[in-house]
Amino acid sequence: MANVVVEVPEELLDQLKRSRFAKVGDAERVRVALAIQLFVGDEISVGRAAELAGYRLVEFHDLLRELDVPTAVYDQEEYDRDQPAVDSLRERLGLDGGR
Fold first, then answer.
1. Separation of alpha carbons 36 and 94, rounded Å
2. How many other C-beta atoms can be found within 10 angstroms of the C-beta atom of residue 49?
């Protein structure tokens, strides 16, 4: 992997130091923040983000959880697709689920 040297404004590093990234060094802090941003922006998978950040996947998931970054998205379309199966199961089990 090629490395690139970039100038990062001190103010940005200071902000990251005051964030939940405070426990890691400057270079790692920037690398992790960029990997998270690419993941959150749906540019890369969580596995690739972990790899780029230099973390094992389970550690990266832990970090994302600490940062309140969801690792899975369950959107309305998925909910609508799943709801008939849930309703059918409730009916078979005799549950009304408060409906």
1. 44
2. 23
